[in-house]
Amino acid sequence: MKPFDKYYYYKRAVQSPEIDCQFLANAYKSLRGRPARVLREDFCGTFSVCCTWVRKSKDNRAVGIDLDPKPIAYGRKHYLPELNEAAQKRVNIVQGSVLSARVEKVDITAALNFSYYLFKTREELLAYFKRARAGLRPKGIFFVDCFGGSGCQESNVEETKHRGFRYYWEQVNFNPISYEAKFHIHFKRDGERKRQKVFSYDWRMWTIPEIREVMLEAGFKRTHVYWEGAGPRGKGDGIFRRREVGEDAEGWIAYVIGEI
Length: 260
Known about the structure:
Mean pLDDT: 96
Structural class: alpha/beta
Shape: globular
Strand content: 35-45%
Number of helices: 7
Order of helices and strands: HHEHEHHEEHEEEEEHEEE
Strand order of the largest sheet: 3-2-1-4-5-12-10-11
């Protein structure tokens, strides 16, 4: 069996770059009436979304920003070479802070996989949202995802079976006063021991009203919520639609969008 590759298993269990890029493209075109061409992926990690974005069209470009050199190096080794030479030139990856990195202005900025939850105070979140807004072109749009529900306000472990391995999402705790919580990702390949705490997160779980209010304070003119529908067994169906009323679910995922 091949050596354990945490980024490979993270992508298989957590990420859906094709689905993410299609949603971003569709939502932008629906709101703006034209296609988006330049995407900025904040907290980009291995920047698989950037690579997927440029693969969708020869007119697309992508910018990725992340502080950690390790996932960036992984993406340069594993994902960038999957693109042809021309497409590789349309991907610009910057190692730096999303609060200070200097990059071109874009049509879409996206902070996915709840990455901005690392900002724990309103002041920090506002500073980031202002920076995101300043980096948008006219008619640009800012996308963030979020999650919540009663099941996210207690310690729990969610186990998902994939071909050849199991994925565990563990919520260690939840503080109802600060809305801070800690999480771990564990993996167990078939026939092997469970690998504990492969990824860990110390977050503040921002609520949808807070996110929308801070976006408006940061200068966005309008905000929208895209709420995930429910499948036959009550789990999310992966289809997000603009809503102003959501279901009182044990667990939910949504996108919040800011328009300039």
